[in-house]
Structure formats: C-alpha cells, structure tokens
Amino acid sequence: MSTRPWTAAATGWSRLPRDARDALFLVAVSAWTIAPHLAHRPAWFGLGVAALLAWRVHLTLARRPRPGRWTVVGLLVLSAAATAWHEGTLLGREAGVSLLVVLMALKTLELRARRDAVVLFFLGFFVVLTHFFDAQGLGTALAMAVAVWGLLTALVQAHMPVGRPPLRQAAAVALRAAALGTPVMVALFLFFPRLDPLWALPDRSSARTGLSGTLQMGSVAELAADESIALRVRFDGPAPPPSALYFRGPVLPWFDGRTWTRDPTPATGLPNWTPGLPADLELSGTARRYEMTVEPSRLPLLPLLEGTAPPLELTPPDALQTVELRSDLQWQVSPPVASVLQVRAQAWERWGHGTRAGAYALRDLVDLPAGFNPRTMAWAAELRRQPGLVDADARTLANAVLAHVRSAGFTYTFSPGTYGRDAVDEFWLDRRAGFCEHFASAFVVVMRALDVPARIVTGYQGADPAPVDGWWVVRQRQAHAWAEIWQPGEGWVRVDPTAAVAPDRIERSRNLTPPRGLVGQAFANVNPELLLTLRRTWERLDQRWNQWVLGYSRAQQFSLLERLGVQTPGLMDLARALLGLMAAAALAGLAWAAWHRRRRTPWQRTQAAVARGLQRLGVPCPPHEGPRAWGQRVRQALGPGAEPLVQALLELERLRYGRQADAGARVPPQWHRRFRHQVEAARRLPRTPSPSPSPSAQTPGAALRSPP
C-alpha cells in the first residue's frame, strides 16, 4: 500500500500544491457544513457521507485521478435508492435534505475548476439553510455562521488565480464582505414583513427527547441525565415556591397492565382561541401572570403551569393552528411545537375541576386489567378491611397509602433495575425502590384497587435552584409523574407519592444526580463551579437569542415603528421603511464604489514608485510590461554596472508572480529601501547603452533570465 498521502500530509499544509490545498479546504468546509445533519440521520447515511469525503481527501493527497462521471452517477443513483428505501419517498423535507447532503458530498469528487467550486458553494448555502429545520438555537446559528464564512472564503479563493495567496488573506476578504453585508441583513431582519412561523414545518420525525404520550416504569428515569432545557418561565412578581411548580403535560388514564396511555380523543380542532373554560373548571383567588419559553416537543401539548386558564398570548402568534384546553386540563395544540415558542398566560392560585364528572367516566378510571399484579390487589383489599378504612373517603385512603410509603422503607432512585410482567407487585411488595413513575404508577393501581378513581399525570416539577436573568430553567431531567384522585365534592385532587419518600425532590427541586462521565468528572475535580458557570453563561446567551431573534414577531416590528414615530403602523409602513433603507444602502454603495475606483492597489503603488525611480535614470517604464522587461531596459541603458538594480527588479517579479506570491499583499518596505538605494547608485554610473535591441524586438530565446 502506498504511503504517499501520509508523506504529502507530513510535508505541511504550506508545501501542498495550490489545487490540492484548495480542494482540501473545500472538503473541510463541506464536512463542517454537513456534520450537524448526521445527528438526525441513520448511522449508515453518516458513514456513507464520511466515506465520500475521506475518498476525496485520499485522491487529493495521493495525486490520483478523480472518479469518472459514470462512477459519480452510479453513487448518486445508489444514494437516491437508499434514501427512498429509508424515507419511503423521494419527496418531502427529510428525503430532500438527505439528497442535498449527498449531492454536496458527491460534488467534492468533481472538483477540478472554478465552476465546480462555485456550484459547491451554492449547494453549501442551501445545506446551511436546511439546518434551521431541525434547530434554531444560538449554537446552530454560530455553527452555520462559521460554515458561511468558510464557504465565502472558498469562493474568494477560487477567484484569486494569481500566485499562491494564503488562506488567511481569502478569509479576511470573506470576513470583510460579510461585515459589509451585515447592515443589510439587520435591516431586512428588522423591517421585512415576518412570515410566522418560518421554520416550523411539519415533521414526522420523533428524534426529540422529552415527555411522551405513554408511561412505563423506567421511562421517566431515562430522562434523569438529560440536561437539555424543556422550558423557561418568568413571573410577574415573586416566583412561587418549588413545591408549586407543576407544569402539566400528558394525562394518562388508561392502563393495560404494562403501559399508561393518554385519552386518544382528539382535540375539536377549534381555531385560536377556544373561548371560555371547561364546564367543570373552577377558579378562585388571585391570578399569577407569567411568561414561558417552550422548546420544541414531539407532543401536541403545551406543558403550562397547573391552574392556567385562557387566554394565552403566543409569539409568534401563528405558530399553532389550534389550541384547546381539554376537560382534563391538558393544553392540546396542533401541530406539535416545532420551534421555540413564547407564551404569556396566567395561572390561578386556587383551582379545581371534575366536581361534575359523570359516573361512567369515573367507572372507567377505577378499572384495572385482569390478571396483573394479584399480590397488590390482595394487599389493597386487606388495607381496606382495616378499622377506620372500610367506609373511608378517597383522601383518607390516600393518606393511608402514603403512610405506608413513608414507613415501609421505600427508596427513591433512578436505577432500580428492570421490572417484569407484574411490575407493581415487584415494586410495592419486594424491591421497594424506584423513580417517580414507579411511585405514581403503583399508587394509582392501589387507589383503583381501593375503588377510588385515579389517574397519572406527567409533566415537569420544580426548576433549577437559581434563576438566570430572571428566568427559571426547567430541564428534561425535571420530568415528573404524579397522581390525581377523585374526591366527591372537590373533584380531582393532586397527590404526589414522591413527596412521601423524597420530600426534597418536591419542596427544594433537589433532583438525584446521575453519575458523571469522564469529561464531566474531570471538570468537577478541577473546579466544581466551572462547568456550572459555563453552562449558565451559554444558557443566558441562548435565552436572549430566543427572545430577541427567534421571538422577534410582527407585533414587535410594529412596536419598533411606533418608537420611531410612526402612528398606527401597518405593513405598508414596514415596506416604506425597508425601501428607504434599501435606497440609502444603494446610495452608500455607489459612493463607496466611486471612492474605491480611485484607490490604487498595493501593486499599483509599487508600480508607480518603480516608474518614478526609473524615470530619474532616464529609463522608460511602460505599465503594460513587467519587472523583467523593466530590468532588460535598465541593462540596455546602463550596462553591467546596473546589475544590482536589475536583480532588485527580478526579486520584485518573484514577489508578484512567484510560487509563494500574494497578489493582494504589499511589497515589503525593505525592498523599497533597497530599490531606492540601487537607483541612487545607478545614477552615478556612466551611460554606456548596449547595442542590443529593445525588449519589444527580442526573440523569445533572448529573454532575461535570473542568474542561478
């Protein structure tokens, strides 16, 4: 096997031929641009794309020919067939993005001319845009800004054919071009009419983590190590204690012996907003206003604070087609939240629902599947026969079950092991160790066995210990499951069995800490606060990005126009402001072009300095000739004594056109000093012109050559 690629790589980046260096840079930029998509694609897809890019690197370093057209076409057909097999179609968003990524990777195999680099550049820009279908956070924006900078650098490099200019020069030109375009981008962002929601397209993917519409023992515990943010909340006034922070998500009334599921009854599909309240929702006390930022979710629900009642204010206002408060107090929406959503709402201090629940619905919420957890059924029957519990109400029975949890040595842990078919029997009577869903599930089963209507509610409970810029952060690891029982005269009452075994989890939001990985443990050993500080700083920046960029809506555009003095602004006012800014930008561009037209490049300034110096010697310096021809004129006019001046001109030629030349760089000042010194020395030489013909009359074989 040849070792030439590794030998070439070892010689250093600066010694590679320009075509190889430019190709490798384009491959690196393509890899950076494509990489975030691979996290949302199957493993075989990522390996295939990586193999194509690695193949191109190998061909470049080994100086081997590129594959033929039919090879590339065959790879494209194979990729399209694999995409159609995986996605079920070649149409739609996911299939389109996959094919676009494959096209970009395949195009690197055809890099041979400026045209190919330009095509790859535009493909890269389309790929950059598609990343915002999956995420619109600050991290995605920064990564794609780097990708755009790399693509612009590659484009500039492709249009610098003279010499071998360094990449840093092309990168600087690209950065200046981006800086010049930034004011236009900001103006368009501020005044171009908002099309909400821009990125929230339908998605059949379920790659997002978080709550789901089902619950099994162990499913919530899987989120215990997930530090990603589920939502942020800020209150108008003092924040409630952690024990009151219950964010209601899926309500799970149906149990098949293994899995709890939601009521499949769909929302009525009423447009925003469903007026009024559910018939059995009763509100009292004062309302607490709050603002929430909800991250994308795979569920058609909004996890709002319990006791939240209409109306809601959404930003962007058209992000959801329907919003409905169901009778079980789930805020059902359509479609699922696909981009960051801001919600303003109010939650009431005291609330209740279900006081007028029908007997049929309550009967369904007492039923249990036959043949499951027989020992728990027997234990519940024995408990009911105890003195004082025979005719007890739901609250009394619930307190008796919670007293058993406190006294029977239960352990709160997210790693209790795997449970079998009769999971509640194992948990309740044998292991007595589990996470919140184990306690909630067993509690509801026991209460139903006691003939008390009960159901499971999932959502989030508590928040991080300290707010960030006034926002309380709720993470996926704060996903929680609790229970509701039905009490005559009161309706549905929240009961959280976790509070009986781990009160700090509810009252102080002290979650269990999963074992750290190698990197996390290293940070903790060096500085326990460093990782926390870095994370909070990043989340603060991300939240501001969500508010000021992702949350910038049409209403905020109108508010900006009002602050600029426009009365009752509308879309026409936005259009006028945008046209005015575009006209101002055009005038500024014309003024800059006129000024730039009169500027002289570093080479033009050097050429003028050489012309002045040679004119002092009486030697003509036509601008259409180069330093070699000027040197020939000097030799003809001044003879061998002017050889140092001739060599200085040949050195200028190497600086301008040599292998390491930089077309846009300045000629070093020391060369100018040496040239002026040689001109002064040449002025003292006797004028003994050579009889040789002028440069224009020379034959090709008589061209001036540098001494070895």
Number of strands: 18
Q: Please outline the major beta sheet.
A: 5 strands, antiparallel
Shape: elongated
- The figure for the number of domains is 5
**Helix-strand makeup class:** alpha+beta
Helix content: 40-55%
Kindly estimate the percentage of residues that lie in beta strands according to DSSP: 5-15%
Topology, pairings included?
Elements: H1 4-10, H2 18-38, H3 43-62, H4 69-87, H5 93-107, H6 114-130, H7 138-158, H8 167-191, E1 214-215, E2 229-235, E3 246-252, E4 254-255, E5 260-261, E6 281-294, E7 301-302, E8 304-305, E9 308-315, E10 322-325, E11 331-334, E12 341-353, H9 359-364, H10 374-384, H11 394-407, E13 411-412, H12 423-431, E14 433-434, H13 436-449, E15 454-461, E16 472-475, E17 479-487, E18 491-495, H14 498-501, H15 503-507, H16 518-526, H17 530-550, H18 554-563, H19 571-598, H20 602-616, H21 627-638, H22 643-657, H23 669-683
Parallel strand pairs: 13-14
Antiparallel strand pairs: 1-5, 2-6, 2-16, 3-8, 3-15, 4-5, 6-12, 7-11, 9-12, 10-11, 15-17, 17-18
Helix pairs in contact: 1-3, 2-3, 2-5, 2-6, 2-7, 3-5, 4-5, 5-6, 6-7, 7-8, 8-19, 10-13, 12-13, 20-23, 21-22, 22-23
